Amino acid sequence: MGNNKKDNTATWQHEAVRRARILSRVKWTPVAKGMPVNKGKKYFEKGVEYTGVPYSSVKYVGRYIGFDIYLKTFLAAVQNPFSVLYTENLSGKIKNAGPYYGVVCSSYTSYGLGCAIWYISYFHNPPYREGVSLVDAQSTQTAQIGDIIYTPRSIGSHVEMITDLTKDDTGKVTHARVEDSWPATTRNINYNEEKFNEHLKKRKLYRIFDLSAWRGKNNAESFLFPNYLEDATTPVINRVLLLDRGDWVPYERGQVVRINIMDRDAQGVKKLVIKRGNKIIEEITKPGKGVIERSFPICGNYTAYCIMEDGSQSQSCEFAVCDLDFQLSNEQSDQGKPLEIEFSSNNMQIIIIYLYSDSNPFGIHNVFVTDEDRRKGKIIIPGNLLQDEGNVQIWLIGENKYGRLKKRQDIFIKK
Q: Quick check: pTM over 0.85?
């Protein structure tokens, strides 16, 4: 009998697995009905414990867990029966979407690999990425922790990560554990040798041999998100009040913020207090239980908390009110012509311009905004990134310490 030896060598590959498992091993339990599973044909069940974050291709409408919000923001939203998880439904609005917060296969692996923004599944491999190559012999015995498995676009376009290998006394690999994001939540499958080799028959096993080259400028260390330290720490969820978007989260200026006073421990609420910075902007006496709606025209970092009947102060909900916008000189542009984008923001730093061609699935580009761009309030998109005729989505992405916001405009590229 083998002793099921594990390779515990500390490498960046093992760190990638540890990070990915922050999302795949988290446990949560819905407190209400109405949270859709992918495409909205089913719903997560109230009172049932789930493992791993939900699958949802939120695009620019919702928010990706880990990239746009903290994991703890999702966990706080889970505990609020009036949060966007239960009141919003992206099914029918966005392909492969369901919950307002979620991840997909590519954002799951990109999160583990330390990216600042996700690479879609078929951009994990050559020729779109450097520092990665096809493993010569496609088998269990050549697999390594941190390798990625790509399913070609012809049969679905999917990406998975090898997170563990089990070996016998002779060093032979007996099992390969594969984890990925898949409806309804993340998956965790420990294949034996026969099943793993069968799994590879229609897929390709790739190895990232130079992570710096593979990521390029797209590295999490240069940005505020993903924030692995915060995501790996078990949060204390507020039991007195929560926001419709959870807690520790940004809102757009003027957007309605719905504060749900729950008082779960029946302490009695004497007063609701809302502050911007250190300044009290509103106090509501005897607010009772239920949802209070407010919108905030001034950008800044806010807190909302309750004074209880015994005089104690509840845990605060923290949120930011931000503004970001950009202007295009025209609604259309010539193919291959550089494009100037003017942008502005308040209480949020613009970090990325994301381009997505509706006519070309490979017409996806990240343009990282520099300090000089921010000083000028504008950026030039090179003409070689605007070669695809037809509609191109332009997403402006900004971040602050509470998360990211995205704003979209479209431009038509003509010959």
A: yes
Helix (H) or strand (E) holding 194: helix 193-200
Q: How far apart are CA 121 and CA 8, in angstroms?
A: 28
- Tens digits of per-residue pLDDT, 336-389? 999 999 999 999 999 999 999 999 999 999 999 999 999 999 999 999 999 999
Classify the C-alpha dihedral 159-163-168-171 as positive or negative.
positive
Residue 394 is inside which H or E element, if any? Answer: strand 390-400
The first and second tokens of residue 333, run together, are 């542009």
CA distance 343 to 106: 28
- Eight-class DSSP state of 222: G
pLDDT digits (tens, 9 = 90+) for 282-340: 999 999 999 999 999 999 999 999 999 999 999 999 999 999 999 998 889 999 999 99
Instruction: Check if the beta carbon of residue 358 is closer than 8 Å to that of residue 390.
Output: yes
d(CA 349, CA 368): 12
Euclidean distance between CA atoms 227 and 111, whole angstroms: 10
* 3 state SS of 172: coil
- Distance CA(219)–CA(138), nearest Å, equals 29
Length of the chain: 415
Per-residue model confidence as pLDDT tens digits over 45-94:
999 999 999 999 999 999 999 999 999 999 999 999 999 999 999 998 99
78 — phi, psi (to 5°)? Answer: -60, -35
d(CA 24, CA 47) in angstroms, rounded, equals 19
Nearest-CA neighbor of 67 among 57, 76, 77, 79?
A: 57
| DSSP H or E run through 230 | helix 228-232
Q: Whose CA is closest to 392, among 346, 345, 332, 338?
A: 332
Helix residue spans in 26-97 (DSSP H): 71-78, 84-87
Query: 273, 301 in Cβ contact below 8 A?
Result: no
**Is residue 9 a contact partner of residue 17, using CB atoms and an 8 Å limit?**
no
| Rounded-to-integer distance, Cα 64 and Cα 159, Å | 17
What gap in Å lies between CA 103 and CA 108, rounded to an integer?
6
Token pair recorded at residue 351: 């970090």
Residue 299 · residue 323 · CB < 8 Å:
yes
- Show the tokens assigned to 297: 């025209």
